[in-house]
Amino acid sequence: MTEPMADSHPADPIIPPRAFGEGPPSAFAPPTPWRKRLRIVGWIVAVMLALLMVAIAWLAVTAPLSRSLKPIAPPSISLMSADGHLIARRGAVIDRPVTVAELPAHVPQAFMAIEDRRFQSHWGVDPRGIARAMWHNLWSDGASQGGSTITQQLAKGVFLSSDRTFGRKAREAMIAVWLEVWLTKDQIMERYLSNVYFGDNVYGLRAAARHYFNRSPDRLTIPQAAMLAGLLKAPSRLAPTTNLKGARARAALVTRAMVEAGYISQAERNALPPARLDVHEEADPTSGTYFADWVLPQARDRAGAVYGEQEIATTLDWRIQRLAEAAIRRAPLGEAQAALVAMKPDGSVVALVGGKNYAKSSFNRAVQARRQPGSTFKLFVYLAAFRAGMTPDDRIDDTPITTGTYRPANHGGKYRGRITLRQAFAASSNVAAVRLTQKVGVDNVIKVARDLGVTAPLTEDLSLALGTSEIPLIELAEAYAAVAAGSYPVLAHGLPPEEQGWFEKLMQRQRRFSEDQLAMIRDLLSSAANRGTGSAAALRTRTFGKTGTTQDSRDAIFVGYAGGLVTAVWIGNDDNSPLPGGAAGGGVPARIWRNFMAGAINEPVDDTSEAEQNPDLVNAIANVAVETGIGNIGLGVDEDGMTVNIGPNRIRLPVDPAEPDNPAPVAPPRGAPAAPEPGSPPPQGRPAATPPG
């Protein structure tokens, strides 16, 4: 007999009987035992403690207390010399932090009365103050009131931005509590007073007291302290230098708040006179210099948009800069101006003077002015000749040019016949330079100038050989620095070079002179500086350089190098009028150069008198031809005669002075006809480019 199949469904659960009227069972879980509740609370507390520890660690890293000591100036740059001296400061006026113990009691009281009356009792955040501000803002007619404490304002100013976001306010409150835990109330007040903005680009109580009242903060009166405390609401709008009425009205509100806070009595308030200003503009000699004006744009780019004060190191050498300024100051310039730029062969500018007096004229004649370089431009002519295969011992005619439309003349109409390139360069022969330019081509001379860093426009005619195109003095210094360095181009810079990528290095790599060309041009520069028109500049150290003088002595220049330093000196008048006495590059500029360089490279030198350094005597050139194998002729001149040194032999000759330099005789001032030098033949054909204005 077959048994019945078992039921595949499980048996229904047994439901216990329910009391009458109890209703259906609850869908909610049964109550949690008390031990489990305690465990959950423990986890919550642990998580909160962990979050607190993370917050403390974050504050320790992102908000170091040392930052609250520093003034919160806007982007400000301090330019420093290479040896750590302040050159110039561009930015906010700041001063040392204050100490509460040294202040009269009414000074911090004025700030607490108007900004945070419960400062001494709250823990960084004042709930009552926040509630009061919210109630005021809710029912006021638009005049908002802040609830931030002094500690919160310090936290905001030192560590945070001014964004009006909940996240920023939350961080502000956290940092305020952090500051209250680790600092005393006096320390918080000191940091606050040393950081806040008081208008007129002035930050900190000490700087503000000095600026508005010309006194230290420990001598502030109640009206003065009240005025300063009142400025914090709107420092730019209430600055008493532009809104004295508004500043005094706000100060009256501060003194009333001081009465309400119990700091002073009503009778004391009634007896207070209004604060009187004694504005003090700091006479800071570092507020502007020629070098700072030149380097500042690049310094700002390098600093970027960083909020706060930054120090930017420069290439300037403080000692050498002072020597340069002294050399210009002592020179017998009369009404003329002067400029000097000194750099290392790599282009690092160590001294720069753009005029006699920055306070009277900030125009930078070393960088901004374009003047005719005169015979200093012959550097490029002779380098082009050497590139074409010539040598210093090759000969050139130093005779009048009688063919063609352009017929320049030598200074004083003096000619030497057929001489070597070395002699022509030392004597600064105009006709020799023009003949060389004809031979090698104007384009090749321009190519050399461009290779050596000259960017100014250059005339494409033979007058270019005599330096009639206008060039900034700093570009001349760059070109001579290339010869000193043995490679080109050399770019003048006032900030230490930044690290370059491989592409920048590839695109900006220098080229080197050939050994032969470098030796030959240095030979010529040595001859010109020691035995030629620039002999007044000669030092005991081996000296290289060239003089330059333009028509009617409108510009006088000496550029050269010695002891690892390249220096260019210019004198002239801003209106391009002639210098008195027929000044030449071998005269005052050469002596300025020598006096400056002797100190800069630590070589003692006697500063000879003006009479002993008459350029017509010192720059004398023997008008004789010698065999090239004999070598260079050395000259010594005194009032009784001339000493000629030929190798080891010495010959005594009577004085036979020659020209100090050969200025271009065909470059008239703008709008004026050309005027030849005395004794020179009249120029024919098209005149050279006009001199600078």
**Computed CA radius of gyration, to the nearest angstrom:** 40 Å
* Ends distance: 137 Å
Give the helix/strand class: alpha+beta
Average residue-wise pLDDT: 79
Lateral arrangement of strands in the main beta sheet:
5-4-12-11-10
Any idea what the shape is? elongated
Number of helices, where a helix is a run of at least 4 consecutive DSSP H or I residues? 22
Enumerate the spans where pLDDT stays under 50 for 5 or more consecutive residues: 68-73, 161-165, 607-640, 654-660, 665-693
Task: Write structural notes for this entry.
The chain is an alpha+beta fold and 693 residues long. Helix content is 36%, strand content 11%. The protein has helices spanning 34-62, 106-115, 127-139, 150-159, 166-182, 185-193, 205-213, 222-231, 235-238, 244-260, 266-270, 290-303, 318-330, 378-387, 421-427, 430-440, 442-451, 473-485, 502-507, 515-530, 588-600, 615-618; strands at residues 76-80, 86-90, 309-313, 337-343, 349-353, 395-398, 417-420, 487-488, 511-512, 544-549, 555-562, 565-572, 633-638, 641-646, 649-653. Helix 4 packs across helix 5. The protein is elongated.
Brief descriptors of the model:
693 residues; 5-stranded antiparallel β-sheet; 22 helices; disordered C terminus
The gist of it:
By secondary structure, the protein is an alpha+beta fold. Helix content is about 35%, strand content about 10%.
List the helices and strands and how they pair.
Blueprint: H1 34-62, E1 76-80, E2 86-90, H2 106-115, H3 127-139, H4 150-159, H5 166-182, H6 185-193, H7 205-213, H8 222-231, H9 235-238, H10 244-260, H11 266-270, H12 290-303, E3 309-313, H13 318-330, E4 337-343, E5 349-353, H14 378-387, E6 395-398, E7 417-420, H15 421-427, H16 430-440, H17 442-451, H18 473-485, E8 487-488, H19 502-507, E9 511-512, H20 515-530, E10 544-549, E11 555-562, E12 565-572, H21 588-600, H22 615-618, E13 633-638, E14 641-646, E15 649-653
Parallel strand pairs: 1-3
Antiparallel strand pairs: 1-2, 4-5, 4-12, 6-7, 8-9, 10-11, 11-12, 13-14, 14-15
Helix pairs in contact: 2-8, 2-10, 4-5, 4-6, 8-10, 13-21, 14-16, 14-17, 14-20, 15-20
